[in-house]
Write a structure and sequence with these properties.
The chain has six helices and seven strands. With about 230 residues, it is α/β, with parallel strands linked by helices.
């Protein structure tokens, strides 16, 4: 059992990085609230579509005034055929662009606003968000909406640090390359992605554990994680 159990909220807990993070914290005896549209794989499930204001309100209503040690925004969406040769910006619709930005940029802003009071009740609260290398300067990918949303997330979190400066919340964006989730491994196996060695999911869970155990006086604005073959 973990010697310092925490209450964490994991956004995007039904698959991918979010599912792995939720499973990790449940296995270490933390209290986990798992947010997703479809059933979460672990934790106390909050059913919510974060692309809509009603979904964000559902999260706040489910949590009430529960103190939260960590908000872990692990969700994310992207355009159809993203990161493959089949992606075509000119075929991407206005609706698709708005959906990607609503989930990847607007939702983390509004969820943070909704849960700021919950976070401020604990002694060392942290809000951690999954970004992407494509959100860094001079590292865009061709997926316009996804790249824009990740740039926007970084800017939003920088501003949240200032806007909520009196709440004593630590803010971090983790910007990784491809993570070895089941979905990414299948894409590699079936040839949709080129041959590569994606970053093990344990790198993400280890990074989050480290961040959550830093002293309150230490803030880490960003962590950028490249696969070694991609490093500058």
């Amino acid at each position: 059992m973990d010697q310092n159990p925490k209450t964490v909220v994991v956004i995007g807990a039904s698959r991918g990085i979010g599912a792995a993070v939720a499973q990790h914290f449940v296995s270490h005896d933390h209290q986990v609230w798992s947010v997703s549209r479809s059933p979460a794989v672990a934790g106390h499930w909050i059913q919510a579509d974060i692309s809509e204001p009603a979904g964000i309100q559902a999260i706040a209503s489910a949590l009430g005034d529960t103190p939260i040690d960590a908000l872990l925004f692990m969700g994310g969406v992207w355009e159809a055929s993203a990161f493959t040769d089949a992606y075509d910006f000119l075929s991407s619709s206005d609706a698709e662009t708005r959906f990607v930005i609503s989930v990847n940029t607007i939702a983390p802003i509004e969820i943070t606003r909704s849960l700021a009071a919950n976070l401020s009740q604990t002694t060392n609260p942290r809000a951690i968000y999954i970004g992407a290398l494509s959100g860094l300067e001079n590292c865009p990918s061709a997926e316009v909406a996804n790249t824009a949303s990740k740039f926007g997330l970084r800017g939003a979190v920088q501003a949240l640090r200032l806007a909520l400066g009196n709440q004593n919340i630590g803010f971090t964006v983790i910007n990784p390359g491809n993570i070895a989730t089941e979905e990414v491994l299948l894409d590699i196996e079936e040839g949709r992605f080129g041959p590569q060695m994606p970053i093990p999911i344990t790198v993400i869970t280890t990074a989050i554990d480290w961040l959550l155990n830093l002293p309150p006086s230490v803030d880490v604005p960003e962590l950028n994680l490249w696969q070694r073959s991609q490093a500058f």
